[in-house]
Amino acid sequence: MSSRIQHVYGAQHPPFDPLLHGTLIKSGSKPPTTPVKLKKVSTFQEFESNTSDAWDLGDDDDELLAIAAENLNTEVVMETAHKVIQNHSKQQEQHKVQEEHLQEEKQEEFAQLTSVACGDNRLVKSVSEGHTSSSLDNASENSSMQRSQSLPQTSIPPLTSGMADLNTSVCPALSEREASRLDKFKQLLAGPNTDLDELRKLSWSGIPKRVRPIAWKLLSGYLPANVDRRESTLQRKRKEYFAFVEQYYDSRNDENHQDTYRQIHIDIPRMSPEVLRLQPKVTEIFERILFIWAIRHPASGYVQGINDLVTPFFVVFVCEYIEEEEVENFDVSSLPEEVLQNIEADSYWCMSKLLDGIQDNYTFAQPGIQKKVKMLEELVSRIDEQVHRHLDQHEVKYLQFAFRWMNNLLMREVPLRCTIRLWDTYQSEPEGFSHFHLYVCAAFLVRWRKEILEEKDFQELLIFLQNLPTVHWGNEDISVLLAEAYKLKFAFADAPNHYKK
């Protein structure tokens, strides 16, 4: 843990001071309130049906369905949702035990398979590999040929051909539940027209790694639902992006743009993960993406923090072309140039789609972030008054720690693997990055209430809030956080008077 308080990262301009910015915030205006969604959820049946897969209720279905027969008030919904989260935690423990047992059995089977050695004393990875290749060298050559043949210049869309190879790729063994979810995604994506509503419902509780690239492109609106139109869309958008590069990138050293380019160049080494950001090829790609976006969006231009938002897309789209489990340890420059160009263009367009929904976070004085931090403060004061009062008593301002949460979408607070899982849900939620993120931040803060209440001075509190211990977090932690956030959204956004003081 760092021993000093960090400056607020990502602010292009100093935070608002109502006395200095009277034209932007009227002195007599009320603090902004959380927006109320027009759609009203009247029964628990809708609540349960929308979230049963997210929480994997299992054996508790009968009990909850019995409760669902009644029209419930918000207090009952809150109590039931809390019970669901507790059940989720218990089932995660049971799931871990089952997984360990399955893993032991699979290791024994694998040991038997690998006991057969080739003529050159090297082990055969699998029975099928032993039949299809006489040596590991030939297998490596075949793998390279298959990868090069799957490049986008072929008549088969690369996303479709990538899905066709899912069963034959070398991947870690999946649990029964993971395999079942993957089959559901495959069936949904295999049709001529993907049902995006069904894809959102299925993706809310996480997307399998093997289908995440195509799922993200569909959920972001980058790819059309119609399979026949996807290849032409990819070719057109990738060509369009590199036309922008040709038109604008040479102007990065011009007097009008050199400050923007210099700031981008400074910020990229601050990216996470460290191994990835230190690769010259990755730096080159990110500089182009960010500079082109800044030039094409003069209302905001480039702001610190936008550089982080490229990383999840880039890492996910790299996974479309490699078999390594950890992208951070992969040498990106080893990929063919055309593949790198595809990844770069796809990352640019998907990041642009994301920023279209939160661009007021990055315009002058960043009013979107100012508003969201104020809304977070109001929300926490209503759902956990003790935590709110404790922060207030020690003069800790929400802007001092939550500005970064909003500016970087929690990317600096949780590991990259957790950010990617979080974005599965954000892209499945209506206004996930702009609206649902608020409730995730509230749940995230209250998650640390015990530790917050134990800290008794300003400096220790701020150091803790800027260095939260999430380094070992995984998908289970994010799933519970999202369930808590959904509970808050359901109780607060759809019933704004529920927490009225």
What can you tell me about this protein's structure?
This protein is an all-alpha fold and about 500 residues long. Helices cover about 60% and strands about 0% of the residues. It has 23 helices and no strands. It is globular and about 55 Å long. The chain starts with about 45 loop residues before the first helix and ends in an 8-residue tail after the last helix. Residues about 10-45, about 50-70 and about 110-170 have low confidence and may be disordered.
Largest sheet: none
How many individual helices?
A: 23
Radius of gyration: 24 Å
**Percent in helix:** 55-70%
Task: Report mean pLDDT, rounded to a whole number.
Answer: 76
Indicate the overall shape. Answer: globular
The count of strands amounts to 0
Strand coverage percent? under 5%
Please render the helix and strand layout as text.
Elements: H1 44-55, H2 61-67, H3 74-113, H4 127-132, H5 136-149, H6 158-164, H7 176-190, H8 196-203, H9 212-219, H10 227-248, H11 258-267, H12 274-277, H13 280-296, H14 306-318, H15 337-356, H16 367-383, H17 385-393, H18 399-407, H19 416-426, H20 432-446, H21 449-454, H22 458-466, H23 475-493
Helix pairs in contact: 1-2, 3-23, 10-15, 11-13, 13-15, 14-15, 16-17, 16-18, 16-20, 19-23, 20-23
List keywords for this structure.
0% strand, 59% helix, 501 residues, mainly alpha
